Amino acid sequence: FRVKEMIGKNPGDLWGGKMSPSFYRKMWRVIKTKKKPFVGSVRNLKKDGTAYWQKLCIVPVLDDKSGLKYFLGIEPKINGEENQNASGGD
Predict the structure, then answer these.
(1) 37 Cβ contact partners less than 8 Å away, ≥ 6 residues apart
(2) Domain span at residue 7?
(3) How many separate domains does the chain show?
(4) Which of 2, 8, 53, 64 is deepest in the core (most CB within 10 A)?
(5) What does the alpha-carbon distance between residue 51 and residue 25 come to, in Å, rounded to a whole number?
């Protein structure tokens, strides 16, 4: 996606929402309730609809009273072998 195609979009609309509801519940519980970093792999979709696996690191950023200010997400690159292992070898 180009930057102007992503502005104003919900990340889930771009990802494709291919993970189970329990995955998202766990992710939000870790970052929002426990206020801890979340690290996992998500199945995303490219613009052309091709599925791929992506590492996802989300860190809650807190204010001086430990309240949530915002979340910082990073998607480190997965190499081909890691991607194949994450997809079960498919």
Answers:
(1) 30, 31, 57, 58, 59, 60
(2) 3-86
(3) 1
(4) 53
(5) 22
CATH at residue 77: 3.30.450.20
Give the pLDDT mean for 26-42.
95
Cβ burial of 60 (10 Å; 0-12, 13-18, 19+) is buried
CA distance 11 to 29: 18
* β partners of residue 39: 57
pLDDT score at 77: 78
Q: Phi/psi zone of residue 83: left (φ > 0), alpha (ψ -120 to 50 degrees), beta?
A: alpha
DSSP 8-state symbol, 89: T
Q: Cα separation of 75 and 56, whole Å?
A: 5
